[in-house]
């Protein structure tokens, strides 16, 4: 049974690989056997160490994913170094907090471009490679609790993450015939840079923790099992689903 989760010989592209959730998902996929192509603007040296600790290879691509300009380079780097692509994890994202009545065009465009536009066009490019390889493949998008809810002071983030959940379903409908599974993970309230402002606000942090049945903020490691599952043969009949990893937040 455990062989269903084995990723030996697989190649995974992970965006936003320099820290937080992306870094931990790189390490988790490597622990299951995958080689990693990490994509980020920031330093990925720590991520590389974690992957190489699992005796797997790590190749980095420095890219500002608010633009689609680096997509061809990402694909070509993976093919040049590993010969194929098996998994794409669209993790890179940003959140800009401001009242909706004061929200700027720049904050809107930056957030939508990174969280949605590049996610789609990178998925499109990787899907073309899957089809060319005649191999099938796995695409995992990182959604959010705000794929389900409205949130406060994050209009572009909520719009983008709601769209990610819808796009996950739309792509699953079209790509399943090519043996490509498209699913998403919706992390709950995680102790990452994106939630630093919330965790630093004692009142708001208590309000959040009081609603989470698990009674704690999530950690990047809490996504490890989910990303391995959705990247492996164990999830071959799972398509278009958004898996909440939230400590029970949505159940309340």
Can you walk through the features of this model?
The protein is built from eight helices and seven strands. It has one domain: Rossmann fold, CATH 3.40.50. 44% of the residues are buried. A seven-stranded parallel sheet has the order 3-2-1-4-5-6-7, sandwiched between helices. The model has no long low-confidence stretch (mean pLDDT 97). It is globular. 42% of the residues lie in helices and 15% in strands. The protein is of the alpha/beta class. Helix 1 packs across helix 8.
CATH class: Alpha Beta
Sketch the topology as an H/E string, one letter per element: EHEHEHEHEHEHHHE
Structural class: alpha/beta
**Main sheet makeup:** 7 strands, parallel
Number of strands: 7
Instruction: Give the helix proportion (percent range).
Output: 40-55%
Order of the strands making up the biggest sheet = 3-2-1-4-5-6-7
CATH homologous superfamily label = NAD(P)-binding Rossmann-like Domain
Please tell me the CATH architecture by its name.
3-Layer(aba) Sandwich
Concise overview:
This protein has 252 residues and is α/β, with parallel strands linked by helices. It is built from eight helices and seven strands. The chain has one domain (2-246): NAD(P)-binding Rossmann-like Domain (Rossmann fold, 3-Layer(aba) Sandwich).
What labels describe this entry?
single chain, 252 residues, alpha/beta, Rossmann fold, seven-stranded parallel sheet
């Amino acid at each position: 049974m455990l062989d269903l989760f084995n990723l030996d010989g697989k190649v995974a592209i992970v965006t936003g690989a320099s820290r937080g959730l992306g870094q931990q998902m790189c390490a988790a996929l490597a622990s299951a056997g995958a080689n990693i192509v990490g994509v980020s603007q920031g330093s990925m040296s720590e991520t590389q160490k974690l992957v190489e600790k699992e005796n797997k290879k790590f190749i980095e691509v420095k890219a500002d994913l608010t633009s689609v300009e680096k997509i061809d380079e990402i694909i070509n780097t993976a093919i040049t170094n590993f010969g194929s692509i098996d998994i794409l994890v669209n993790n890179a994202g940003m959140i800009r907090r401001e009242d909706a009545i004061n929200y700027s065009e720049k904050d809107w465009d930056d957030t939508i471009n990174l969280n949605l536009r590049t996610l789609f066009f990178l998925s499109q490019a990787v899907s073309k490679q899957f089809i060319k390889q005649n191999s099938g493949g796995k695409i995992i998008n990182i959604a959010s609790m705000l794929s389900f809810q409205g949130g406060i002071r994050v209009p572009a983030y909520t719009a983008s993450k709601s769209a990610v959940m819808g796009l996950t379903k739309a792509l699953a409908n079209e790509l399943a015939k090519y043996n490509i599974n498209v699913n998403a993970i919706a992390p709950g309230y995680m102790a990452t840079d994106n939630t630093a402002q919330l965790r630093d606000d004692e009142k708001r942090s208590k309000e959040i923790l009081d609603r989470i049945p698990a009674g704690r903020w999530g950690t990047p490691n809490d996504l490890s099992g989910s990303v391995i599952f959705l990247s492996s043969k164990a999830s071959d009949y799972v398509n278009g689903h958004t898996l909440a990893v939230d400590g029970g937040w949505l159940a309340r």
